[in-house]
Recover the amino acids of this structure.
């Protein structure tokens, strides 16, 4: 078993979910997170607050997707996620972990 994990932008979630459903993956975990990184899209943004005092937003909203699959499906799942999250601003990243044991 493998755990496939990816951070995507929130508006990409519906398309990623559809792509996963097309390949027979229906069990996914989705978590709202905030992230920062090296990508241009992750540059801090300046907002005006009360009394026009500016503040910087360093962490942008993201969605973390987690899918547990057999190792034979890993490449198919990773490609389904990347198909929706790659664009000119982001190359997309998928992390794959070994699952040692599952206890129910």
């Amino acid at each position: 078993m493998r755990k496939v994990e990816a951070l995507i932008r929130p508006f990409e979630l519906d398309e990623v979910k559809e792509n996963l459903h097309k390949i027979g993956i229906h069990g996914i975990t989705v978590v709202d997170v905030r992230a920062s990184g090296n990508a241009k899209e992750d540059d801090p943004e300046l907002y005006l607050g009360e009394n026009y005092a500016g503040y910087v937003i360093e962490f942008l909203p993201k969605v973390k997707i987690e899918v547990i699959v057999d190792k034979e499906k890993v490449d198919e799942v990773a490609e389904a996620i990347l198909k929706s999250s790659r664009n000119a601003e982001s190359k997309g990243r998928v992390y794959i972990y070994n699952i040692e044991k599952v206890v129910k």
